[in-house]
From TrEMBL:
It comes from the Bacteria. Gene3D superfamilies: NADP-dependent oxidoreductase domain. The keyword Thylakoid does not apply. This is Aldo/keto reductase. PANTHER family: D-THREO-ALDOSE 1-DEHYDROGENASE (PTHR43312), NADP-DEPENDENT OXIDOREDUCTASE DOMAIN-CONTAINING PROTEIN (PTHR43312:SF1). PROSITE patterns: TAT. Keywords: Signal. The keyword Transferase does not apply. InterPro entries: AKR2_Oxidoreductase, NAD(P)_OxRdtase_dom_sf, NADP_OxRdtase_dom, TAT_signal. Residues 1-28 form the signal peptide. Residues 76-308 form the NADP-dependent oxidoreductase domain.
Length: 321
């Protein structure tokens, strides 16, 4: 099934899934935006599963949306016109996490514009990052992020790629105590930083860690994911498709028959279900700028979710080989 076919089917059907409700830090407001085609999202779509944020006990949907590249668009462009549909689809299926950064060009501003236009801030768990050196520079950058996002409170503020992490974590703890941010996190996207990232997690015990993990990029499962589980740190997974290269390689291959055992009807769903098979993963945040891709990704968050035993060495090799 293609992503476009999946979207058409999912928007026309209604199913049920028992999953803990997500309670965002802001008061929930029903989405009032329309898709890029002008149609309101269906209200009875199957909601995706949620997982617990250890530090608070709140629930977070297991699939979110990254804004790298895809949201770096300007109003009036064809690409920008598709983005309201991405957020509509995310919220309609029970998703909430939108992850951005000052590093991502115009993505924060675009996110803020879309949330304001659709009056859907209450449905979003907004995550962004600080990506500079020095206390005052970090404060200026975060204040600018607040302005661009159009918020007075950010759900998750992360130190991007551990840049000047000691300085920024001190500021973030102050801002969390003052109620300006909900959670504190650190991020990286490459295994070369794992030794440092492990050290920071042990010393600082942030609320969240964001890292790379995929079926062809499994090193995080050796030490970092078990450590996060032991320390009670929620995990956001970036690059869940291995940076996109694997998805491009497999997309023209037939989906293996055993994918049906976990309800996967596309390669994107199967790759995301690999990530979610690790119980330490709280939410995967694949980036996209297309509503049909967002819907396809979200389908991976519906039951059944596999456990680690589903992913035998032979099945992993069948995907990555």
């Amino acid at each position: 099934m293609s992503r476009a076919d999946f979207l058409r089917l999912s928007l026309g059907g209604a199913m049920t899934l028992a999953a803990a409700p997500f309670a965002p830090l802001a008061m929930a407001t029903p989405p009032t935006s329309t898709t890029a085609a002008g149609a309101s999202p269906a209200a009875n779509l199957t909601k995706i599963a949620t997982r617990r944020i250890p530090v608070s006990g709140a629930s977070l949907p297991v699939i979110g949306c990254g804004t790298y590249v895809g949201f770096d668009e300007v109003p009036g462009s064809v690409e920008y016109a598709r983005l309201p549909g991405v957020l509509n689809t995310l919220f309609a299926h029970g998703g909430s996490v939108i992850d951005s950064s000052p590093m991502y060009g115009r993505a924060e501003q675009t996110t803020g514009e879309l949330l304001k236009q659709s009056n859907s801030r209450g449905n979003a768990f907004v995550a962004t990052k600080v990506w500079t050196s020095g206390r005052e520079a970090g404060i200026r950058q975060m204040e600018e992020s607040f302005r661009l996002l159009g918020v007075d409170r950010v759900d998750l503020m992360q130190v991007h790629n551990l840049v000047d992490w000691r300085t920024h974590l001190a500021t973030l703890r102050d801002w969390k105590a003052a109620g300006r941010i909900g959670y504190i996190g650190v991020t990286h996207y490459t295994a070369s930083a794992y030794v440092q990232l492990e050290s920071v997690l042990k010393a600082e015990k942030p609320d969240f860690v964001q890292l790379n993990y995929a079926i062809d990029d499994r090193e995080a499962a050796q030490r970092l994911l078990p450590l996060a589980a032991d320390l009670g740190i929620a995990v956001l997974v970036n690059r869940p498709f291995g940076g996109g290269g694997l998805l491009r390689r497999v997309r023209d291959r037939p989906l293996p028959g055993w994918a049906a055992e976990v309800g996967a009807t596309s390669w994107a769903q199967l790759l995301l279900k690999f990530v979610l098979a690790n119980p330490a993963v709280t939410c995967a945040i694949p980036g996209t700028s297309r509503p049909e891709h967002m819907a396809d990704n979200l389908a991976a968050g519906r039951a059944p979710l596999p456990d680690a035993g589903f992913w035998t060495a032979a099945r992993i090799a069948a995907v990555t080989g």
